[in-house]
Design a protein that fits this description.
This protein has 283 residues and is an alpha+beta fold. It has a domain of 186 residues: Class II aldolase/adducin N-terminal domain (L-fuculose-1-phosphate Aldolase). It has ten helices and eight strands. It has an eight-stranded mixed β-sheet with strand order 4-3-2-1-5-8-7-6, with helices on both faces. The longest helix is centred in the middle third of the chain and has 23 residues.
């Protein structure tokens, strides 16, 4: 169990890192950590995460009621509570607005694909939760089935949520999501993002769950075919999976074939040439 003083220092440090790494701006995002007594230390509403101080942190109970601190708890408190309720192994939650990852949701491009080996190994895939209004019970309820099976999720047009057994682990997972989005977008800009072979993806994920752990529900499926990977990762849809719903879209190219053959003029052109030649001889 990490003492409260140290957790306060970590939330301040990683809040600043989120800002410096461009994972959030202004008053965006919120962080929380589970205290030894089971209560939750979280950022208060309306504070800049890049300039956090100790007074920006409040303590709430598992129902969201403030116990200590100045100001009100984060407006996304219900989302944090849902994560702790669904994942007893979770001890820290970070919600941020990583720009490239959010752009993927706005463009309706799924990141629940197997592209980078190290991401499949340590994180699996990153699903997108359907849209719901920020700060509502509806959003908190929608993320519940996703956080049961994943350590990081995206929320449509909104942001990302990362869970961890420590604040550092949650931050690393959040950072990995945005780094994956950047690499995938760059590959798409260069012409397409090829995905891992389905057998290799399943092998990596099974190995990762056994070596590094993960959501208990996912670890329980480590020896099953495909482990906890979605059908998009373990089913082949052609070379590099160039399906419209994938990260490697079809290249809509129009091709022209050039061949070599004798030039043959049409009768109209031949008549025009003959007429021009005769006029030239007569002049």
């Amino acid at each position: 169990m990490v003492p409260e003083r140290r957790l306060r220092e970590e939330l301040i440090k990683f809040g600043r890192l989120c800002y410096e790494r461009h994972l959030l701006v202004a008053m965006d995002g919120n962080l929380s950590a589970l205290l030894p007594d089971g209560t939750i230390l979280c950022t208060k509403a309306g504070c800049h995460k890049g300039f956090l101080v100790d007074d920006d942190l409040v303590v709430i109970d598992r129902k969201g009621r403030k116990l200590r601190g100045a100001g009100n708890p984060t407006s996304e408190m219900l989302m944090h509570l849902a994560c702790y309720e669904e994942r007893p192994d979770c001890r820290a939650v970070i919600h941020a607005h990583p720009p490239i990852s959010i752009a993927f949701t706005i463009a309706n491009v799924s990141m629940a694909r197997c592209v980078l080996p190290e991401v499949v190994l340590t994180l699996g895939t990153v699903p997108t939760v359907p849209y719901a209004t920020t700060g509502t019970t509806s959003l908190a309820d929608k993320i519940r089935p996703y956080v049961r099976d994943h350590d990081a999720i995206l929320m449509d047009t909104h942001g990302a949520v990362a869970l961890g057994t420590s604040v550092l682990e949650a931050f690393c997972r959040l950072e990995t999501v945005e780094h994956t989005a950047l690499i995938t977008k760059t590959a798409r800009d260069l012409g397409g993002a090829k995905e891992l072979d389905p057998k290799e993806a399943a092998h990596l994920r099974s190995m990762g769950l056994k070596r590094y752990g993960g959501p208990p529900a996912a670890v329980a499926r480590a020896d099953q075919p495909g482990a906890d990977l979605p059908p998009a990762c373990v089913g082949c849809s052609g070379c590099a999976n160039p399906a419209p719903q994938g990260v490697a879209p079809r290249a809509e190219l129009k091709m022209a074939r050039v061949v070599s053959q004798p030039l043959v003029a049409s009768p109209v052109v031949e008549a025009a040439i003959t007429h021009a030649v005769l006029r030239s001889l007569q002049s």
